[in-house]
Amino acid sequence: MKQAIEKISIQNNTKWPELFNLISNELSIVEENLISKLPAKSILLKEIISYIFSSGGKRIRPALSLLLAYATGNLHKKHIILAELTELIHTASLIHDDIIDSANLRRGRETVNNLWNDKVSVITGDFLFAQASVRLGELENTEIVKIYARVLSDLCDGETEQYSSLFNINTNWETYIRKSTAKTASLFAACCKSAALLNNQDEKIVKDANSFGNNFGISFQIVDDILDFTSNAKEIGKEVGADLKQGIITAPTLFALNSTDERAKQIKTLIENRFNNNEKDFDKTIRLIHELGACEQAKQLAIEYISKAKENLYFVRNEEIRSCLIKVADSVLERI
């Protein structure tokens, strides 16, 4: 344990992208609170929390909640709390995901479970979920409490559905979108909708803010799926092809499986046989998916969802904020 702690180099290297300039001060407050103001009494837990939040990250979810605050009125203290609790839930879910996936890398750094162990990781994730709940109470808004309670339920449901459909070549698009909504888009939708609710916006605007977050989140997940096939470990901070190797049927794989090309049958057999537990068959599956243009098809689907998200922004009257949100949406696609 001591050796693990000694491996940590705590340094906050977060540099906000230019498109977050409008909220850079608010994001810095959120970041500072995440790094130094979580009330962990255990020295070990403090070390782990510092390690986690000093590793950076896009902070896209808190950024969206802050931008939606300005888009729907004024940004006030409760929006800062909303941004913090959203990132706490996201981070806690990643820690638990890494345990489930036996992942060694996250954002290019060792995972908590790899640096320490699974038991410590579970406790850390639970602590972050608990702190998110504390902040949720501080909002004093029962509707938002219900929204985030559903998000937590969705996260568990989505993870369970994913686990139960590993190596399932009969996975369909309805299942994929439902799982992507539960595991990814629901939290995006929640932070956008809640930002509007905190500004007491009418039902139509609240609904469109929710739709923006949901469409944004589904596109974000599709792009992550593509990167699993097209990037290297240094770029995505985890092993390339990790999802497919575990039997997770993501967007590119689904496009390939639904192809009428004869090679789709080969892919089905390889996945059903779990690549015969050898790298050669796994590499062949990756190659065939690329040959069928599945990543390009997935990109088109991601573009469609981002287009829907931008259409949901009709209610934003402030041109500067609207332009910023559009740029943030477009930045999702720029990752591929």
How would you summarize what this structure contains?
Helix content is 71%, strand content 1%.
What does this structure look like?
The structure is a single chain. The chain is mainly alpha-helical. It has a single domain (12-333), classed as Farnesyl Diphosphate Synthase (Orthogonal Bundle), CATH 1.10.600.10. Helices cover 71% and strands 1% of the residues. It has 17 helices and two strands. The protein has helices at residues 2-6, 24-36, 43-53, 60-71, 77-101, 112-115, 118-138, 142-164, 173-198, 203-230, 233-236, 242-245, 251-257, 263-272, 279-291, 294-311, 319-333, and strands spanning 105-106, 109-110. Strands 1-2 form a two-stranded antiparallel sheet. β1 (105-106) and β2 form a beta hairpin. The longest helix is centred in the middle third of the chain and has 28 residues, at 203-230. The radius of gyration is 20 Å and the shape is globular.
Which descriptors would you attach to this protein?
two-stranded antiparallel sheet, mainly alpha, Farnesyl Diphosphate Synthase, 336 residues
